């Protein structure tokens, strides 16, 4: 995308072919002529400068609290999304170009684009062609286009030889907009479609021709930007006819197939009555065996979309939401309650789907949420888990001030120990070390007995045992990110240890780790200091006053030895240097009281934060 000296924004394919233009700037009403929606100015204020020396365009959010996401999609469209708090999902505000088929080479060579296609993708291969890269198509990238099923008889499918193969023929594709980059042939000398066809056959590289009021046009190499006309345009007869060059075998094969289909249909009709009962019985037996294997051997169930739609009441009972999906409550039968995560956004949904199925889908531990199955139909990606009736840990720590609803100290300590055991299993007991990368109370679910289950493995990374660290971008949640991850260094399982330490502080205190206390103006020696909560924990440990850190809703009803042990372990887990943090297996032993826990030093980074906070208060 570039802003030209003429003051017009253009989107370019391969930095050379423009496929969308903003139009001229309307200074009176403050919008580009091709983007009239700008005039409403619901989200942005716009600034356009063209003073003869420079041309610039800028936009700013009118409401600084709005969450807006602007990006260039893999389809070639620039999209602007707005986070809708009420529905907990991203909604599209506008996109350019509006139609996907307006993007240059959106479907790649030898594919046809149709904005009215019923499927999520507007692209389909022309007759005689199939997808060149099926995996990329599934991820939304169709730029590789399609490849021939049967090579041309002339030159083996596209050489530059001059001798025409006698067996190549043409298939008429009607009501289309002709491909990009046509070449005119013959001028007035070519006066008929037959002559135009012969002109194409005379060159092996010729892929198609069209003959109309504009004369004879031919195309060499891959055909791009072939597009079905809109219904209204097609009805008005404004579409062209493209004659696509195919090998003669392509026509012969289809003729034979047609005969075989007719013969096969007759044969099937004769034996169908006798076979149908047997097939039905086999299907019932196979389904029973499949269910038996899935439930008895711990395998995942591949659900059909319509079954999950029925189980969730058409996704009517929403119980949670995240950045790229929503969670719905459902029931497989009268006794099995499930939670169905429905993923949105083709690329991110596919990444999260593969990450979760590839990690938690093959793991079994009492402190990991159990994946029941999944659904992978067309572009739909859904994950099915066991339902957790007591919601997530953050609902009990942060969302209620009711002392009666607060988790008891015994329950809190069991939750802390269970989460530590789950992480120790991921880090130390799996074939490949699994780094969760997003440990936080929102991703710790509680079952009917308040047993903790670690969930949401959409960011998880697998690290082979012969590696010491893995490179990944910082993607977790602010407040739980280890210092080395923020600085862009390769990560180890110790990033989970750091996040666990922060969670452990929150379990003890019932408050978020990012909270501060400020006693400005109180008159005491320390009253004018803003204290970052983890620093306060380290200070209270030294002073021997750990009970003041316990959630006030408990009224002091906690075991002081366990509180002190938990606070020490948490402070060891959040040390600046990852080498100073204990492994999760050691954390479990500490919390179980099997090893002595020494007094931890105050992390230098947290001390620096506390120093800056003190300066800000004074």
Automatic annotation (TrEMBL):
Highest taxon listed in the record's lineage: Eukaryota
Bilayer topology: Single-pass membrane protein
GO CC annotation terms, alphabetical: membrane
SUPFAM superfamilies attached to this UniProt entry: Protein kinase-like (PK-like)
Domain spans labelled Apple: 154-247
Domain Protein kinase: 313-595
PROSITE patterns, per the entry: PAN, PROTEIN_KINASE_ATP, PROTEIN_KINASE_DOM, PROTEIN_KINASE_ST
Cellular compartments annotated: Membrane
Protein's name in the database: Uncharacterized protein
Organism of origin: Panicum virgatum
Upper classification of the organism: Eukaryota, Viridiplantae, Streptophyta, Embryophyta, Tracheophyta
